[in-house]
Design goal:
By secondary structure, this protein is an alpha+beta fold. It is built from three helices and four strands.
Length: 121
């Protein structure tokens, strides 16, 4: 038999949980993490932007808001976005630990002009 009460309940919950229908108060939370700076920003459209900067290297990621009825700070404290933050920290660490075969800190580039200087005719 068809349960009309549970059908309506599911439809109401579906409508309430649709984040696209809400406008959020923008929030920002900053903290130090593993020697770098972590900035978590909740935008008014429900998108969460997370920035991680360490030693001049910045990595950015976005995620949709997962729980619209929970405060943004509570979501962060419960680890809702920890997977995104872990990926950012790993990427920045990978960049910092790598080195270029072309550019070295102890190698100085010549300051000579790349084009020969000729008088204008």
């Amino acid at each position: 038999m068809f349960d009309i009460k549970s059908f309506f309940k599911r439809e109401v919950e579906k409508k309430l949980m649709d984040v696209d229908d809400y406008i959020f108060m923008p929030e920002r939370l900053e903290m130090e993490l593993d020697g770098g700076s972590l900035n978590c920003v909740l935008n008014s459209d429900g998108r969460v932007d997370i920035f991680y900067t360490k030693q001049g290297v910045t990595e950015v990621s976005s995620a949709p808001r997962k729980h619209p009825f929970t405060s943004f700070e509570t979501e962060l404290h419960h680890g809702v976005y920890d997977d995104v933050i872990d990926d950012l920290v790993k990427e920045v660490s990978k960049i910092i630990d790598s080195s270029s075969k072309y550019f070295r800190r102890n190698k100085t580039l010549s300051s000579a002009p790349s084009l020969p200087s000729r008088p204008l005719s």
